[in-house]
Amino acid sequence: MELAKKYIGHNVHVTVDRKLGSKHPNWGFIYPINYGYIPNTISGDGEEVDAYILGIFEPIDSFDGICIAIIHRLNENDDKLIVVPEGTNYTDEQINCLTEFQERFFSHIIIR
Hints:
Elements: H1 2-5, E1 11-18, E2 34-38, E3 49-53, E4 62-73, E5 80-84, H2 92-103, E6 108-111
Parallel strand pairs: 3-5
Antiparallel strand pairs: 1-2, 1-4, 2-3, 4-5, 4-6
């Protein structure tokens, strides 16, 4: 979590590998938002730091935005950044609703 906290309030570049409307290759659900990773980073799970992109309503390949929060999974070492267009904000309730398609399977808290 400490590693991911350094991103809050900062501009980040996200490479999107799961575009809005795409199907998860293993679990079959459809992504209702764009989802990707921060290139050249390593998170607690040994993979690149993951990011949900909120406030963009079309499939995209990459995105530059502000990290406003982190979803910290309590039972696994895999934090997710919440990245939005500059000047945009979402409440914790809105973040939970928009990421519920995947986060419902994990105990988590939102860190600001």
